[in-house]
Design brief:
Blueprint lengths: L35 H10 L23 E2 L3 H17 L5 H14 L1 E3 L2 E5 L3 H27 L3 H29 L1 E3 L2 E5 L3 H17 L5 H14 L1 E3 L2 E5 L3 H40 L12 H35 L1 E5 L2 E7 L3 H17 L5 H12 L3 E3 L19 H8 L6
Helix pairs in contact: 2-3, 2-11, 3-4, 4-5, 4-12, 5-6, 5-12, 6-7, 7-8, 8-9, 9-10, 10-11
Length: 424
């Protein structure tokens, strides 16, 4: 699949056919003598079957993009998550695969594209088998780590732990993508993934080595390379995909926000100095002499510390949201689908103000409910992101054909959960 996208065809000239669309009445009579030679010249210059009526040129209307939508309700999703949580507690978390299947089934069923809903075909039984395999892998890695530490072999323990994670990470990516997509359908058309675990592991392992040598600088190129590999091997029926982002572009985004974070730390340090002075000044007014052996404290300093804490959260949180939005935009704007010998782009219409309002609302929901509102936050996020995604309107979902085979191994799916890897 080509990395550089072909240029779009130039639109037709809207002025084409203007001469033929001119009215034919009010033509002045000609004094020219009509001869046989003139008739011969006219017969050769005018194509046969030339229309005698004016030809009108109809301007093409712009094609509206495809926009997915989400119809889930926080209350219904909350009930599903609550029942799942209770059953996981009763079964010592062995119900987790069935809980995840119920969660995905609801979320997929509430997601709509081109008038049709998605369907998740995975089952708790399939994911339970993968869950047991994941528990075995985790037991081996952490068992080896604790054994090495007990034998006072810290270096060996370090190699077992982080070496095991390096080995498992490609398995988690490969397994999560392959299982999740193979169990997802839309109008009966299944998604699929045709990547090879060996190829993905080689890319990841080489990328890790280069990242260590370059003190993590090369990690942006690793992330882009992995995404490109996975995206190019995803299928939606007979539709192929590509990711055209560059590692340098992602690195520059991260570098820019590293500079912003540094400036933010300097601003916070300056605020600390200012508030420290204010706090000591207020301390002469609000100081209280605590009896019983307690030291004298200043209410002004306490107020200053609280204000400082909130300011630091506001400054650093704002920078983090700006970074997150730009990375989301980077991934979306460089993703394309190939259909009918043409590339169809994806666009993300998300401003910083939109993301800021969503994040602040989510934060207050989680804080004031002590995390109980997590299902509502997940639903809010999907209601937020879906209407802001656009797919080129020339993409034709009605001509998709089935090409993918069945796949039921959910090992990587559960390992991906352990490593907090999910499809984006």
């Amino acid at each position: 699949m080509p990395e550089n996208l072909p240029e779009e065809e130039k639109p037709l000239n809207p002025n084409l056919g203007e001469e033929s669309s001119q009215p034919i009445e009010n033509i002045e009579p000609s004094d020219e003598i009509i001869t046989a030679d003139n008739l011969m010249e006219e017969s050769t210059s005018i194509p046969p079957n030339q229309p005698t009526e004016p030809v009108s040129v109809v301007a093409k209307l712009p094609i509206k993009p495809w926009i997915p939508s989400f119809h889930g309700e926080g209350s219904k999703y909350f009930v599903i998550r609550l029942i799942n949580a209770l059953l996981q507690v009763v079964t010592f978390n062995f119900y987790y695969p069935w809980a995840k299947a119920a969660k995905l089934d609801y979320l997929y069923e509430q997601t709509e594209f081109a008038g049709s809903r998605f369907k998740f075909h995975g089952s708790g039984k399939e994911m339970f088998i993968g869950y047991l395999k994941m528990l075995f892998i985790v037991a081996v890695i952490y068992g080896g780590f604790y054994w090495a530490n007990a034998e006072q072999k810290a270096i060996l323990g370090f190699l077992i732990l982080y070496g095991g994670l390096i080995l498992v990470y490609p398995l988690a990516i490969h397994g999560t993508v392959k299982y999740r997509l193979s169990r997802t359908s839309w109008r009966g058309i299944f998604f699929g993934y045709r990547g090879e675990l060996g190829e993905l592991f080689a890319k990841f392992f080489i990328g890790i080595l280069l990242s260590v040598v370059t003190f993590s600088i090369y990690w942006s190129w690793v992330q882009v390379d992995l995404r490109k590999y996975v995206t190019q091997r995803i299928r939606f029926g007979d539709v192929e995909f590509d990711f055209t982002g560059k590692g340098l572009d992602l690195f520059l985004i991260k570098l820019k926000y590293m500079a912003f974070f540094f400036i933010g730390y300097l601003v916070c340090f300056f605020i600390i100095l200012v508030l420290a002075g204010i706090g000591f000044g207020l301390g002469t007014i609000f100081s209280v002499d605590m009896k019983g052996g307690f030291r004298e404290f200043s209410a002004g300093i306490i107020v200053g510390v609280i204000i400082l804490y909130l300011l630091i959260i506001a400054i650093m949180g704002t920078i983090a949201l700006m970074r997150q939005r730009e990375i989301f935009q980077f991934y979306a704007d460089h993703t394309f689908a190939w259909q009918n010998e043409k590339w169809h782009g994806v666009k993300l219409n998300m401003t910083f103000g939109d993301l800021f309002r969503l994040s602040v609302g989510n934060m207050f929901l989680l804080i004031f409910t002590l995390g109980i509102a997590t299902p509502y936050v997940e639903v809010r996020n999907l209601h937020f992101i879906m209407p802001r995604l656009e797919i080129d309107g020339t993409f034709d979902p009605d001509i998709l054909t089935q090409t993918e085979s069945d796949y039921r191994d959910a090992t990587g799916e559960d390992v991906g959960d352990w490593l907090d890897i999910d499809l984006a």
